Amino acid sequence: MDSFLPEHVRAGLEAARKKDQRRRSRMRVEADGRSFRILRFQEDGFTLDIEDAPHLRGLVDLYDGPRHLSQCLIVASGEEVGEMRYEFKWSTRAGDRPALDFERPDDAPDGYLPDLR
Fold this sequence. Notes:
The chain is α+β, with helices and mostly antiparallel strands and 117 residues long. The model has no long low-confidence stretch (mean pLDDT 82). It is built from 1 helix and 6 strands; from the N terminus they run αββββββ. 12% of the residues are buried. It is elongated, with a radius of gyration of 21 Å. This is PilZ domain-containing protein.
């Protein structure tokens, strides 16, 4: 059906589709102090708008709104229709507390109450 539409109409439809994807997506990637909105996210990678995205490579941080999800090592894998695809070489979930340097027993108390004598 798109082959029967004039070029300027197809370009307008593509721009509207990208704008809608950007508006719906809360996920973003941060690299080198810059933030980019993720259009599509999969288990093995994500896509960014080709106009906004530089050829990212290396260590980046993934966010869902304000929440830090993971730190990833990425590589650009190719261009798709107006989008740049990036794949994960590895991804590590971001924790909300520091890692323990010892094993915590299952029956350990969650806290201590003060002595109120």
